[in-house]
Every structure is written in structure tokens, then in C-alpha cells.
Amino acid sequence: MRHLPTRTTRASGRTVIGALAAGLLCAAGATAPAVADSPTTAAAAAVSPQSDNGLALTPPMGFNNWNSTHCRAEFNEAMVKGIADIFVEKGLKEAGYQYVNLDDCWAKPQRNADGKLEADPVRFPNGIEAVADYVHSKGLKLGIYTSAGTKTCDGTGLPGALGHEYSDAQQFADWGVDYLKYDNCNNQGVDAKKRYTTMRDALQATGRPIVYSICEWGENKPWEWAADVGNLWRTTGDISDSWGSMLSIMKQNLPLAAAAGPGHWNDPDMLEVGNGGMTDTEYRTHFSMWSVMAAPLLIGSDLRKATPETFEILSNQEVIAVDQDPLGKQGTVVSSTGGRWVVAKEMKDGSRVVALFNETGSAQRISTTAKEAGLPEADAYTTRDLWQHTTYNTAGGISATVPAHGTVLLRVAADSKWAAYPCGRGTRPDRQPVGGGRPQRPADDDGHRSGPYACHERLRGSHRPVGLADRGAVADRHRCRAHRPCADHTLAGDASRGHSHRYVRSEAQRPVPVTDRDARAVLGAVPGACGGGAPGRQQLSERSAAALRFQRLGSGREGHQQR
Ligand code: GLA
Predict the structure, then answer these.
(1) How many CA atoms lie within 13 A of 392 on its CB side?
(2) d(Cα 373, Cα 332) in Å, to the nearest integer?
(3) Which of 66, 152, 239 to mutate to test the pocket of ligand 1 (most atoms within 8 A of CB)?
(4) Could you tell me if 547 and 420 are in contact, meaning their C-beta atoms sit under 8 angstroms apart?
(5) Which atom of ligand 1 is found nearest the CA of 237?
(6) Which residues contact residue 24 at a Cβ distance below 8 angstroms, ignoring those fewer than 6 apart?
(7) How far apart are CA 359 and CA 89, in angstroms?
(8) How far apart are CA 334 and CA 373, in angstroms?
(9) Of 112, 281, 304, 456, most Cβ neighbours within 10 A?
(10) For the residues 431-439, what does the mean pLDDT come to?
């Protein structure tokens, strides 16, 4: 590896002079400790892979000041406390953001007489422990930064941890630090694996659970060796607040999907959402793609000045759920032609999140299929738009017209219940109540049953007969709805958003008119949806069309797509 990283092309805000100064220091043979300081406790002997430490089982979420402040004076105790307050007040803590992380420039240039690190007395007059106490009092965690070199990266000569690993790790633990970002500057040419492994061992020796973030910018392909060393590792150089930077980093990080998993993540750097250099559409793409890539979600904007749009993006629970899915898969590229990207992420519940991402400067139609996204064959698919917060069904086609630089983010699940609609019960032999008994229909994950069978059971509870005759079905479904709405598919054609055959479960629970023509379109759109062969448009019976006309209430069941 290079003796000193090239700093001039990186948009980190530091001065070239700083980098040169660091280089001179290095060239002049500044003392590079050949070995680390030593473990001070017996625990040091019991080293295990960092990814086994039970931390970062989903990608870390939180805040880091670097992208918004760099080393400017506004990075100080008041800011850090203010961010912690906002995490709580604005519901970000509730949404999963947990770590409040200090980046470079928190330290005094000199270690004290005992060789210990001390906080910059102007920025942090009460010391780091006081900040940790405050952050902890809010139910949050504190992160800190140093470099696996003799100095940190900012160029003003702040102390790094190379050769002081055990003492510095212990210092961090004593202050109550929960997360360490370990940078790569002034590394004196010491082998990266050795430097980062030494700090891992030092952190473990403290006995305190500390998430370990390796920040060597992907220079030594950490995705090939760091799963046993750190909980996350940077895969690229620094992000900056521009479309080009974000795009380039995304493209470097996407091919590394196989390396990511619970406890060990690819880190394409912190979020720029809200910093002003991109449009909100571009920031939604940034947030969408970071989530699909199971990247750490570290907010990089000063939330004290953030717009409502920024909060809306960063707080989108449905997108956060993609990032935080416990299966821990990073999404993979299904296709990318002419700047039209399809990236799919497997989710623990079997669904797939599909990002239709438009790299180009004009609106594009982007299409794929449920099969290409990795879903099993099914009668129909439930599709949840994670930015529009709407749900609809398709027969397997996944497509949207995506604005320039935009991303349509869809969570698609095989819809095993669709076949029960809109023809109602009794249309599929495998779902018929046998001898009037309870239909063998799988319950939802949450144990609920919905749709006609739920109504059926409800009717049983009211001593209604089971095995209702076809001619009574419509009336009974209607009656049932008075107890509890059935999950229905209603048509809400929305050609403007490019969805054809769009069958929306109305969330407002308001009646949606369904015409005979709509009914035929519904039944004709999903081959085999009613069992025993596809009802062609011309084959649609009057009874089925009439039944559909009654299905006018939305289910109102959120989370349906998560089955
Ligand atoms: C490096 C890192 C950045 C930031 C700065 C601080 O450039 O990659 O994320 O921590 O150092 O100086």
C-alpha cells in the first residue's frame, strides 16, 4: 500500500497543505511505532472475530458531523448535544438512529503527560465523558474518531492511535464510547490488516462493546479480509455533496454485495442528504440506494438547520426497514442499460425490494419482472411503493416511469391470497372448505386472516353457516364487511405514474367505483388468478363482475406487503 494516501483528489475539505505537511512528516521519518502498546488486561487474550461481537447486526444508524462541519468551529459540544436532542424530539431515535458520532478534530494536538488523549478544550470544555453521559442520558450512543496512523487526517497534526492502540481504546472505553471510526492517514506504510487488527484486539481487550468502523477507503480491499476485523469498512474514498460523487461511490459499492452481512457491512460513506448540493429527488435516490445496499445510515447534515423535506427523507420508515432488514443482504444489480438501473434486495420475509434507478438526465421507463428480481412464481404480486406509500398488485411486471436522477423503490411480494379475489371463495379447489369445514388458508405473519376467508370465519362466529352457496356469496361478503373490512383489490388506474393494471388497496377506506369494464380488466389481467384457468375477458361471468362491484372498500391493512 502507499506510504501516504493521496489526499488531493478527495473532497474532504482538508487543505492540500495539510496533506503535504503530513507527507513531509512521513518523509522525514517521523517516528512510526513498529509495535503497538500492549494489552493491559487478561481479556486481550480472548480475541474473536469482530463480526461475532453481537454488534451492528443491522447497518449502524446515526449521525456524524464530518460532512456538514468538517473541522469548523461549529463542531462542538453544543452541536453534538443539539443533535442528540433532535434525534429524540423529531422521532429519529424512534426511527432507529442511535449513534451520535464525533469525527476528526475533537482532540487536543498533544497527548497529556501520561500519553493520554484529551479533548479540545474549546470545542469540548467538559471533556468527552460529559458528552457521552449526555448522549447516553437520551438513550443514544456515542461514537468517536481517530486514525490508524501517527496523526489524524485533518492536517493540523492531531494525534493518531498507531502505537497507542491499547491505551487509546481503553481511554475511549473509559469515557463511555460505543463506536470507533478508525481512519487511515499517516499510516507510515504499516500493513493495513495489521493496523486494523491491532485496534480490533485493543477494543476487545477493553471488554466494552464498541462498534468498529474501518475507514481505509477501500485501498486494501477490506471486503476480502475485514469481516473478522471490523463491523463495517469503507469501500471508497470520501463522499461529497454532489450527484457525481454519490453516483460514483454507489457504483463502486454495488459490486461488493457478497461481502456484506450481519455484523460486517460495506460502508459507502456517510449520507449527504440535506446538505444542499443535490435536489430532493437526488437525495431520495441517495437514501434509497444506500438502503438497498444495506449501508450504514449516518446522517451527515446539521439537523439543527434541516428542512422538513430532509426530515421526511431521513425518517421514511419503510425505506429504513429496507436498510435494517435482519436478513442483512446487500442488494445486487439485476440490470443496468443506458443508465436505467434495476437493483434488487432480498428481504427476510421473502419479499424483494426493487430499486428502479434512473441515472440519466431525462425521465425513463424502467422495467423488470418479479422473476428477475428473484421472486417465486405466483398468481400475482403485491407491490408497495416505499416513497408514495401506496400498494397495488401486478401479474409480475415491475415497471415505472422514473424521473431524471430519481428512484422508484418498490417492495414486491408474491401474493398468495390474490387468487381468492375477486372471484371469491370456492373458485380454487385447493382453497375450498371441505365438507363445510374451516378453509385451510395460511394466516398472515401476525396471525391475522383477511379477505373472504376471514369473513367466512367471522360468520361462523356469528353462527352463520359455512360452505355458503355461490349465489349467497356476494351478500355474505357484504354483510361480513359490516364486522370487519375484507382485503379487497380496487382499481385505481394511475396512468400518469406509469402503472398499468394498477389495483390499489385503498388506504383511505373510501368507496372506489368499480365498473363492469374495470371488473373485466381486473379479471382478465391476471392469468389464473381465479383458479382453474384464466378467465378471459369474454368469459367473465356476470356473477363475478357483480361480485367485484361490491368490493369497494379498501382493506386499510398496512403492512400487507410484508407477508
Ligand atoms: C478522512 C475520512 C473522512 C473524515 C476525514 C476527517 O478523509 O475518510 O470520512 O473522517 O478523514 O479528517
Answers:
(1) 26
(2) 9
(3) 66
(4) no
(5) 8
(6) none
(7) 35
(8) 7
(9) 456
(10) 35
d(CA 300, CA 272): 5
Q: What is the per-residue pLDDT across 239-291, written as a single tens digit (0 to 9) for each?
A: 999 999 999 999 999 999 999 999 999 999 999 999 999 999 999 999 999 99
C-alpha 103 to ligand 1 mean position (Å): 8
Report CA(284)–ligand 1 centroid distance (Å): 24
From the alpha carbon of 145, which atom of ligand 1 is closest? 10
**Of residues 397, 306, 336, 259, the one with CA closest to residue 63:** 306
Q: Amino acid identity, residue 521?
A: A
Distance 239 CA to ligand 1 centre (A): 10
Which grid cell is 374? 428473484
CA nearest neighbour of 420 among 409, 407, 429: 429
Query: What is the structure's pLDDT at 162?
Result: 98
147 CA closest ligand 1 atom index: 11
Question: Pocket residues for ligand 1 (CB within 6 Å)?
Answer: 10, 12, 14, 66, 103-104, 152-154, 183, 215, 238
Taking the centre of ligand 1 as the mean of its atom positions, its distance from the CA of residue 77, in whole angstroms, is: 19
399, pLDDT greater than 70: yes
Helix (H) or strand (E) holding 340: strand 340-346
pLDDT reported for residue 47: 65
Please name the helix (run of DSSP H) or strand (run of DSSP E) that holds residue 310, with its range, or none: helix 308-314
Residue 393, H or E segment = strand 390-394
Q: Kindly report whether the global pTM for this prediction surpasses the value 0.85.
A: no
Residues designated catalytic: 183, 238
Q: Is the pLDDT of residue 217 over 70?
A: yes
Ligand 1 atom 8: the closest Cα is on which residue?
238
CA distances from 365 to 3, 164, 283, 335, 339 (A): 47, 55, 20, 13, 11
Report which ligand 1 atom has the smallest distance to the Cα of 10. 7
Whole-number Å distance, alpha carbon 244 to ligand 1 midpoint, is: 19
